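@channel sequence for tomorrow's demo:
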Amino acid sequence: MWIKSISEINRLHYQFSNDYFETGKIEKINLSRTITHVPTPHIYRYRLTLHESINDYLMTENIDIRYFYRMKTRESIDDKIERFSNREDQYPVNNWLNDIFGARIILTIDEINAAMALLDDWQDELNLKNWYLRNKAGYRGLHVYFKNKNNFYFPWELQIWDTADMQNNIDNHQKFKRSFL
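structure tokens (generated this afternoon):
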């Protein structure tokens, strides 16, 4: 079941991104460049369109998985843009604005370990951007990023949490991820 979750979220990312960026109606901007080359209205328009249409995709694409999702707020995007714009070392936008859409699935530790063992093999098959296990300041989760090998598509994030870590992770997000409110 969890294997299908990863594949389905990746498929949904591709379908939405293709529908959004490949129509010729939206300027395609290379997100492997720094924020000085990516206009914030481009980011806002993507976020708003995704926010307005994600449920349509979830309902009509017959996604048969159990997960939770959230859209990054404009305030959170602004906070991230400010933090990364002020850094001395500049990074490509698609390396840090990689979670406008974020999904979460809750698994057992054995399922998480099995997923981690398969991710290297799935990188090419699913066109994954990258993944890592985060274990910092009371938060623990496996983060997987989808971009379908396209620098014009905003990456999406999947957080895979152990059931035992769920409450600590929620508490951590409330403490550290909502300071812009």
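heads up for whoever presents: The chain is about 50% helix and 20% strand.
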